[in-house]
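Hey, I'm writing a tutorial for new members on how sequence and structure tokens pair up, and I'd like a real worked example in the thread rather than a made-up one. If someone can provide the structure for the chain below, I'll link this post from the tutorial.
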Amino acid sequence: MSTLIPRLISYLENLGNGVTEPEYPRVGICYQLEKGFNWEIPKIIKDDYMQFIGYSGEPVTPINHIEGSWAAFIRLNKTGNMWTVLETDSEEDATYKQDRRRFCLWLATKIEEYYG
């Protein structure tokens, strides 16, 4: 078996648990995997996104936010901080960032289910 899947799972678990910060902090989860591992989330897993509590309904920006997942993604991307909760964050932004990490854990579990 390739070492790719275990490395993906480990990376996502570390992101999800806050053990590590993303290698590319200004991009989303999918692009983290594409850029860092040359791996695109397959359709079979994207089809399961609706099972994630907090799913936005948008596969491109799956993390929900009160102002809209795409708007939050763009705004937080400009700050360079899409992952770490700060004291100055609104409750919505803090939840959004925490949900990004929860999504990483959920995604690690899904990859394990399908490929592990």
